[in-house]
Amino acid sequence: MLKVLASPRCRVCGARLDTGVPVVECVTGSLVAASFMLSAGPAQAVVLSTVCLVAVTTAAVDMRTYTIPNRLVAGGGAAVAALIAAGLIPPAESLLGAVAGGSLMWVTAVAGRGAMGGGDVKISFVLGALVRWPGVLVALFASFVAAALTAAVLLALRLKKRRDYIPFGPFLAAGALFAAAWGDAMLRWYWGG
Predict the structure, then answer these.
(1) Which residue from 17, 30, 44 is spatially nearest to 6, judged by alpha carbons?
(2) In whole angstroms, what is the distance from residue 170 CA to residue 166 CA?
(3) Alpha helices in 86-117 (DSSP H)
């Protein structure tokens, strides 16, 4: 078992796989399983699982390549369209979440003069559509708080310098997961309901 984890190979072609592949697969499988165990019903489980799949893929790719490719954005968009077509998420809330998420990230990218990449903005449209309005506000707030705290720790420990790049995709992914799981409860608490 340890040998398999140390040097994983593709079962079909025998090529070496990155050691991060089994980790990503374990995390994804665990999150999807948790989605089904914690959801109120199958419809909610499918939506939560989709958020998990898009979020984990976004985080893994951005951490590895420092980019969020258009193929990933298109795949996430197709997943949103499928959920809407199946009647699992309300189209109006999804559209409003996409517009709010993407627009707020675009403003942040413009104001930050290159601190955010175009991939961050594009995936924010997708994640916003998945967590919907007003959950997207919780997702973005959680993303920025997590990124700020992580950056502060990395700077304090001198593991990063002020000009070093830290991929934002993992924080967007974490914020989306947080909003999908606890966004409604957070908003009820915040509004005093």
Answers:
(1) 17
(2) 10
(3) 91-111
State the pTM of this model.
0.85
Alpha-carbon distance values, 123 to 8, 12, 168 (Å)? 30, 31, 11
Q: Whole-angstrom Cα distance, residue 160 to residue 9?
A: 33
* Residues 94/84, Cβ–Cβ less than 8 Å: yes
Helix (H, G, I), strand (E, B) or coil at 188: helix
**Span 67-93, mean pLDDT?**
95
The pLDDT tens digits for 137-193 are 999 999 999 999 999 999 999 888 888 888 999 999 999 999 998 888 888 888 876
The DSSP result for 157-174, as a single string, is TTSS-TT----SHHHHHH
- Number of other CB atoms surrounding residue 147 within 10 Å: 18
Decide: 128 and 102 in contact? Cβ < 8 Å.
Answer: yes
